[in-house]
Specification:
Alpha-Beta Plaits, three-stranded antiparallel beta sheet, 31% helix, alpha+beta
Length: 100
Amino acid sequence: MPKGAVISFDLKPQGSEDYRIAYSILGNAGFTVTTPDLEVFLPNTTVLGTIPDDWTAERLREAVKFEFRNAGLNLTSILCGVISDWAVMGNRVDYKALTR
């Protein structure tokens, strides 16, 4: 059974194209910039998704580092965590913004 995971990262240089590529890689792996119920946007450069039950935060970190490196991205910091419980507060999702 998959379990929840969160990733927060920074890139250098901080060009918009670099971040577009990063979010594309993470999106293809099922990580999004909103809560699972699409109610609230997460803080900048943070995504939420699921990982296989046998994965650890360290394995997730290494997978993200590998994919970013292969895409030519310069990852300067990363935090990966496995979620057992979560609560959120923030700006509500504007569904029009998601479809652009």
